[in-house]
Amino acid sequence: MTSLTDLASPPAAPAPRSDRGPAISFEAVSKHFPAADGSLLEALRGVTFDVPCGNIVAILGPSGSGKSTLLNMAAGLIFPDGGRILVMGKRTDAAVDWGRVGYMFQDDRLLPWRLAIDNVALALEAGSMPAAERSRRARAALDLVELGGFGRSYPHQLSGGMRSRVALARSLVGEPEILLMDEPFSRLDAQTRASMHRELIRIHAARRLSILFVTHDVEEAVVLADRIVMMSARPGRVRRSIDVSLPQPRLGTEGAAALTAELRASLEAEPAQEVPP
Ligand SMILES: Nc1ncnc2c1ncn2[C@@H]1O[C@H](COP(=O)(O)OP(=O)(O)O)[C@@H](O)[C@H]1O
Ligand SMILES: [Mg+2]
Q1: Residue 114 covered by a domain
Q2: Which ligand has the shortest distance to the CA of 42?
Q3: Tell me, what's the pLDDT at 276?
Q4: CA-based Rg of the chain, rounded to a whole angstrom?
């Protein structure tokens, strides 16, 4: 809010990036879906939270709590029926620059008949970029995820962790400022998942991305996030929002273990019961 003292002082210099508005804001968002029996299913109720610019925010909640719905709304794929969502300050039903937003899905969605490098380059094919530039950028994105030597492999020739890296490279190749991630590592074994977490944290620091990361895994949220938004069972509501300031890397540290235990206990204290319609 502008105060009288603000008005009296000289105009401020442009704010540095970290002082800009949130990358994403959910404001009193609600969403219903038509159910099979013709009634309306209430998926989300009054969800309000921000993804500050440059932060990693984890949405943590049980299955069916509306996590993917929130992500799909942040991507402008579906729209809320109450409240609003702002991406880089713009309403998702208006003029968001979607080229600045990347999406990584739960399954890697690699095309089996395309080389790794061509799977990455696919994300650039909708625009008018020349093929040589697309290849150059795809190679750079594979280098970024430390898979530079595997561009000419087919997906079936790669391990689960490597496929996950290709999918991450594909979501980064357009150089997004915001990355939306829907349980992207949930199918990996614990060790590979931990290496993807390290990779993501490294890339996040290098690229100054804002990341909205969906998970149902408490430890994953604690290891990655600057802020954890805990959702209740359907209809999804924000039950708690926790800012995490533990230094990285967190895996295996006392602080991370203590927070993980605390959040697990709080989840058990309120069983994930759905509210009847
Ligand atoms: N397109 C849709 N049509 C009908 N119901 C849907 C649709 N998308 C999601 N739902 C329902 O909304 C609820 C929340 O779904 P979702 O966002 O996928 O939850 P989560 O990702 O947390 O598991 C679930 O009960 C789901 O069945
Ligand atoms: Mg989901």
Answers
A1: yes
A2: 1
A3: 58
A4: 20
Quote the domain boundaries for residue 154.
4-8+21-268
Distances (CA, A) of 206 to 144, 157, 210: 10, 29, 12
Q: Is residue 63 part of a domain?
A: yes
| Contact criterion met (CB below 8 Å) for 119 and 110 | yes
Residue nearest to atom 26 of ligand 1 (CA): 64
Tell me the backbone φ, ψ of residue 20, rounded to 5 degrees: -70, 170
Which residues of the chain fall short of a pLDDT of 70? Answer: 1-19, 271-277
* CATH number of the domain within which 68 lies: 3.40.50.300
Phi, psi of 70 (to 5 degrees): -60, -45
**Please, which residues have CB less than 5 A from ligand 2, an ion?**
68
Q: Is 274 part of any domain?
A: no
Domain count, the chain: 1
Q: Whose CA is nearest to atom 2 of ligand 1?
A: 33
What does the pLDDT look like over 59-116, one tens digit per residue? 999 999 999 999 999 999 999 999 999 999 999 998 889 989 999 988 999 999 999 9
Within-domain flag for 152: yes
- Going through the chain in order, the beta strands assigned E by DSSP cover 24-34, 40-51, 56-60, 82-87, 90-91, 101-104, 178-182, 210-215, 227-231, 238-243
The answer, yes or no, to whether any atom of ligand 1 lies below 6 A from the CB of 30, is: no
Spatial separation of the C-alpha atoms in residues 155 and 222, rounded to whole Å: 31
Q: What is the pLDDT of residue 3?
A: 40
